Amino acid sequence: MKTLKKILYIVLIVIAVFLAVCSILSVLRNTESRFLKILDFPRIQFFVASFICLLILVAAIKKWKWYDYLLSAGLLAGLIINGSYLIHYTQLVPVSVPAAINIKASDAQMSLLITNVKMTNRQAQPLIDLIELKDPDLILAMEVDEWWDNELQVFKKDYPYSQHTINELTYGMVLYSKLPLKKIEVDYLNNENVPSFESSITLPNGKNIRFHSIHPVPPTRFKNLPDNANQQETALIKLGTEITGRTSPTIVAGDLNDVVWSHVDKLTNTKNLLYDVRVGRGFFNSFNAENLLMRWPLDHIFVTEEFRLKKLERLTKIGSDHFPIYVELVL
């Protein structure tokens, strides 16, 4: 029995050290080190695991040694560090984008559904059914290859405006719109195989807005897929430069391959221009739909100050590793 307790104690110590070190190192989230950047993602998991580990330590240790105090301090530091990021996605802080109230018939409204379909996913019908149910004004689909592009052609009649930039490298992108697209540009901000869209959209009341859709590469190296090995990831900063000179209300949406944790200004190098619709409302974790224990928010929607939020939803599974995200906005 003593041997078993000793083994369990050692295992607990190893887990606690791992959690404390990873949580403390995660403050270096803006580094170009891919290992350190990845520590920014599982903050929810680090927080929960650290809390449980600290409870077990407090309950199990009868005679405290100096290293027990040190380990507990490390876990507590991890809780504070991760909690300082996670708190922005709880109702303990004010919302960043105000709720739409007292909506008038003359107010410009629009709805948007964004989805990373997962290129290898060959179940199109769940997404098609979901789009027909929600009936959004705009559909942004990512990881679209030729097969997915053909499947989504069913929306051509109801969505007369569209842009299709397809590739077989998981970075194809398609935008369908019921609203007129006056102008649309395809940009390659930081990788020749990773497109993003910049479009001008006319709302029903005649007002124009700017819509940026983006899908930067994640902080991971891939053998056969695009990445930014040996170079800085600057797609969001370049996008921020374009938005800084904006003259119209602006929306940014897509799979950012980044958790953000509400620090939009730091990622885009803007200041008080873009606001995260999640802040003050909830996590709405969009990834990983295939793993309940490893989920965090990767698909984001940011808006400028002219917008109000009417509805925000994480939708049901569609066979992808991402959940679709749906919003209704009022200008």
UniProtKB/TrEMBL annotation:
Membrane-spanning residues: 7-28, 44-61, 68-87
Residue ranges of every copy of the Endonuclease/exonuclease/phosphatase domain listed in the record: 116-322
One matching Pfam family: Exo_endo_phos
Species of provenance: Subsaximicrobium wynnwilliamsii
InterPro entries registered for this protein in UniProt: Endo/exonu/phosph_ase_sf, Endo/exonuclease/phosphatase
Protein name, UniProt field: Endonuclease/exonuclease/phosphatase domain-containing protein
Gene Ontology MF terms in the entry: catalytic activity
Record's keyword annotation contains Membrane: yes
Alphabetically ordered keywords of this record: Membrane, Transmembrane, Transmembrane helix
